[in-house]
Amino acid sequence: MLLPALFAIAAQVASPAPTADLPLQVQHETFSAAGLQAFRSGPNNEYLIGAPTEIRSIGFWWQGDLIDAQVQLIDVNGGASPLYPILEAHDLSAEHAGAVGLAGDSVVAALTHHYDGASYAIRLVLPHLTELEELSIVWLPWDENSTPKPEVKDPPQAPAGYPKPSVYSRSSWSADPPQCSSGYCSVTHIALHHTAGASEYNSPNWSTSAGNVLAIQAYHMYTRGWCDIGYNYLIDVHGYIFEGRAGGDDVRGAHDGHNCGSMGVAMMGYFHTPYNQTLTTAMKNSFCELGAWKCDQKNINPLGSAWYSGYGGSMNTIYGHRNVSSTACPGDLAYSQLPNLRQDIDDKLSGGGGGTEIILDNGLAIFSGNWNTGTSSSDKYGSNYRWASTNTNYALAYWRPNIPSAGTYKIYYWWPQGSNRNPNTKVGWRVNGNTTTTTVNQQNNGGKWNLVTTKWLPKGTKSLIGLDNSGTGTWVVVADAIRLVKQ
Question: Per the domain annotation, does 64 fall within a domain?
Fold first, then answer.
């Protein structure tokens, strides 16, 4: 059995490729009736399924009969929507159905929405599962534009999180209006480019650099035939940051041939042979300030990798243009700086705080399935622990720590020792929608903290850490406590 409905994404068909016209990356997962049994979470025909990304809305289509079914969206704050009936849509045309690849005899449900923040899972109530042949779930992601915002008064309030550095707007460099409407893809990656304009490196002041940006736009639009400047941001030799492509946050640029999900940042200069210009301290500082702001805003791990939707594969979250296209960009002398830039961004996000410790006892965990409370082990953490048997109905325990600042954390588990413990207890953690699992031997090292992994964790309550009772044989798994220590 896969580690949890909340951790694992047990899709039986791949999500469709994103399209240029899709502002949010809608994802689809299809399950047979038998496949849904892996997510059974309660005695009343309840099924708990984790979302592949944070969602705001949910939709369904199915074959067979879906009778008296209900759905509930569970949000990141521990709340939940009411149970809503899954109702057939009455206004979905054949054209719309074809757009999501539905079979001709499928029934389509109206969307269900949740307005109290992002949701990370759904609970389904399916009283007549035997009447169902196939169920497809349509996940509609949540982003910062999904909920209403209060009107910003004058003067505006300071933004939460890492501050956005000073950026010179398009009007400051007299940008031409774009010749297309803006498309949007939630940013998951940052691309490093160079403009390959050696003369730009010699700019004496801001005014000259602003003129260079306008010239780049003219080249992109009127020579290459693009509808606007391709880069999202440009940074000159003095460290001035210029807004590039029109449209604001998450606007899709035209900078690496893939683009959807990536924020393209171009260093103005030529950082490759034969010019061999080097990134100035001001350029690197500005890139890191811009990167720290975006990574904090989007919960991006600057030291990690993630699925880059436009590219269609996993990629370093901060990468060079050459990583995804056949090009020398951003030049050898800029590309070689990427490890340092990533680390500098991570340091800015961490803001110090090394040694921060978070301990969560089992009283702060969330349990599904059949768990028992134990007190007999003298080496337990706190006053009790929870235990469940293997080779029985699926049981899951997980914690949702409140991370005070993003950074790298050591993750420890505590369990009381016993000869009946599962030697292959499956533990896992879900960070930014990506799940990793491993096994630990709970027959060993009981009564103390056991280091299991070191992970980068984003700020807030979006990370899950837990364990389940999967495994063969008759063993006991113990959920006692976890400990996180920031590096």
Answer: yes
Q: In terms of domains, do 342 and 420 share one?
A: no
DSSP output for 440-458? E-TTSSTTSEEEEEEEEE-
* Whole-number Å distance between alpha carbons of 222 and 229: 10
The span from the CA of 59 to the CA of 88, in Å, is 10
Smallest CA-to-CA distance from 344 within 306, 302, 304 is with 302
| Residue 69 and residue 130 in contact, taking contact as beta carbons nearer than 8 Å | no
DSSP β-ladder status, 40-42 and 372-374: unpaired
CATH number at residue 124: 2.60.120
Tokens of 179: 């010749």
Which tokens is 190 given? 């940052």
Per-residue pLDDT of 141-178, as tens digits, reads 765 544 433 333 333 334 557 889 999 999 998 898 99
Rounded distance between C-alpha atoms, residue 228 and residue 220, angstroms:
7
Please tell me whether residues 95 and 183 are part of one structural domain.
Answer: no
Query: Could you give the number of structural domains in the chain?
Result: 3
- Dihedral sign computed on CA atoms, order 269, 271, 275, 278: positive
pLDDT single digits (tens) 365-385: 999 999 999 999 989 998 899
Do both 327 and 408 map to the same domain? Answer: no
Residues 338 and 370 in one domain: no
pLDDT digits over 408-448, tens only? 888 999 999 899 999 999 999 988 778 899 999 999 999 88
Sheet strands (E) in 379-445: 385-389, 396-399, 407-414, 425-431, 434-440
pLDDT in tens, 33-48: 888 888 888 777 888 8
Segments forming the whole domain that contains residue 297: 170-350
418 belongs to a structural domain: yes
Backbone angles phi, psi at 286, to 5 degrees: -65, -40
Is residue 165 in some structural domain? no
Distance CA 427, CA 364 (A): 17
Domain final residue, candidates 313, 330, 350: 350
CATH code, 283: 3.40.80.10
List all residues 6 or more positions away from 104 whose beta carbon is below 8 Å from its beta carbon.
none
Q: Last residue of a domain, which of 328, 350, 372? A: 350
Structure tokens at 149: 């915002």
Judged by DSSP in three states, 413 sits in: strand
Provide the sign of the torsion angle of the four alpha carbons 469, 471, 473, 477, taken in this order: negative
Q: Find the CATH number of the domain harbouring 436.
A: 2.60.120.260
Distance of CA 325 to the CA centre of its chain: 24
